[in-house]
Amino acid sequence: MQLTKKFVKAKNPCTSGYRWFLRDQNGQGDYQAILDALIADNRVDDACWLLDQFGPTDAVLTVDFIDANALVFAGTLIVRQGIAVDTVVRAGGSIRSGGGIKAGTDIVAGAGIDAKGSIISGGCIRADDDVRAGWGIEASSRFECGGNVRAEWDVSAGQGIAVTGDIRAGQSVVAGGSIKCEQGIKAGGRVQAEHDIWVARGIQAGDSIVAGNHIETGWGMQSGCDIVADGAIKAGEGLAAEGRIAPGSGHGVYAGLRVRLDAWADAARVMAQAKPEQLISGYWCGTDAQASSA
Question: Rounded to 10 degrees, what is the CA torsion of 79, 85, 88, 89?
Answer without folding.
Answer: 0
